[in-house]
Design goal:
By secondary structure, the chain is an alpha/beta fold. It contains 12 helices and 6 strands. About 40% of the residues lie in helices and about 10% in strands. Strand 5 (about 175) and strand 6 (about 180-185) form a beta hairpin. It starts with a helix and ends in a 12-residue tail after the last helix.
Length: about 280
């Protein structure tokens, strides 16, 4: 698949926890113009193992990451064109390491894909007490912005859902689960909501309906135009061209409160602190 995508002149993008990233695989990916988003939630093995849910995960993750770095992935393809990223989720267990992880990424030409723990799946069932308060999130984002301005020459909106980057996935992408169910993004679990099922089954499944039909459906047309129906402080925000809030987080919070799916999707961003800075 990688070789085929590369042959079409399209840049392959791989998301991996790097546990199985061997030296040969890393070199193959580098030679085929792949960009890789890895995983690193903590520099402490015991914390990383706990968050990953498996003993020894930290060593495997760091080993795979080293193979990618040795293969040349920390050498930018051009100014601002990074080929390696690291996804890490802020929480109470790694709060004290956030600055160190950020420096590690910046010094090694790695894109820091820092996200907030979303109340869904294992995070909701087992890690709910590890979620940070809005005040703690604001504090570390402002600190990281100060670090970027002082040491690395970057400037960015501090209240976007992903630190230093907005997320517009709902406007242009589709996420397909291993079962064929189609979502706007991973945490926007439309396929699990009973209100969207027809005769007990979620209709937007590529094993039953073509992707084109799903893309053109009323539901996904609504999702792709979600920026036009946002509510609250997101409704008339001047930054809509680079941030629509985290729709996955809004959806998860909304449905947990009993909202219907479409209402949850359009609710105002639950993480934005723009008003406190203006």
């Amino acid at each position: 698949m990688i070789a085929y995508i590369d042959s079409l002149g399209i840049i392959p993008m791989m998301f991996s926890n790097t546990v199985l990233m061997t030296r040969d695989l890393a070199e193959f990916l580098y030679e085929h113009n792949v960009s890789v988003m890895g995983k690193l939630d903590s520099l402490k093995p015991e914390v990383q193992d706990y968050l990953a849910g498996r003993e020894g995960a930290a060593a495997d993750i760091r080993g795979g990451l080293s193979n990618l770095m040795n293969a040349g992935f920390t050498e930018p393809a051009g100014p601002g064109k990074l080929r390696l990223g690291i996804s890490f989720v802020s929480n109470r267990l790694n709060l004290g390491e956030i600055e160190d992880i950020w420096h590690f990424c910046r010094r090694n030409n790695i894109f820091p894909n820092m996200e907030i723990l979303t109340p869904t799946g294992r995070a909701n069932d087992e890690l709910a007490d590890k979620m940070l308060s809005a005040e703690e999130i604001q504090a570390y984002k402002m600190k990281l912005l100060d670090i970027d301005r002082k040491y690395y020459g970057y400037d960015w909106l501090p209240y976007t859902p992903i630190t230093a980057s907005g997320c517009l996935q709902h406007l242009y992408s589709l996420y397909i689960t291993i079962d064929g169910n189609v979502r706007p993004c991973a945490p926007t679990k439309l396929d699990e909501h009973p209100a969207l099922k027809v005769n007990g089954e979620y209709p937007c499944n590529v094993n039953k309906t073509s992707l084109k039909e799903i893309f053109d459906s009323e539901l996904f047309s609504y999702v792709r135009n979600i920026d036009k129906v946002l509510e609250g402080r997101c409704e008339d925000c001047k930054h809509l061209n680079e941030c629509i809030g985290c729709r996955g987080y809004a959806y998860s919070v909304g449905v947990n409160k009993g909202m219907d799916p479409l209402e949850a999707l359009r609710m105002e961003c639950q993480q934005c602190f723009k008003e406190s800075l203006e």
